[in-house]
Amino acid sequence: MRIGHVLGAVGALLAAQVALSPAALAGGRACGNRTVIIQRLAEKYGETRQSMGLQRDQGVIEIFASQESGTWTILMTMPNGMACLVAAGEAWDGQAELAVNTGKPT
Asked: Which UniProt keywords are listed (predicted)?
């Protein structure tokens, strides 16, 4: 991972924390208003939602990424509406994997 992107990811987390109240920084994660976080991901990195899923009863997990910049971010939104940045990185490859033929019927 390039040092520039590491610093950029840290900068994005710090920028998100600026807009957050200290109480929102639960467990050392950057948490806040989902709309504000998504807007910053779009404006700063050109990231859009690529996929999403439910994490049992704990919340919604979304992956945002940019094909242009190669950056990606994982965001978790809790049932109470609070959203937290879980991870961020670079070298996003959004290509779907081809199914491997195992010879077994599906």
From this structure: Signal
Q: Indicate the domain borders of the chain.
A: 3-89
Closest by Cα among 28, 9, 32 to 20: 32
What is the pTM assigned to this prediction? 0.64
Relative to beta strand 82-89, strand 31-33 is: antiparallel
Dist. CA 93–CA 10, nearest whole Å = 21
| Predicted confidence band of residue 49 (pLDDT cuts 50, 70, 90) | very high
The phi, psi pair for 99, rounded to 5°, reads -65, 140
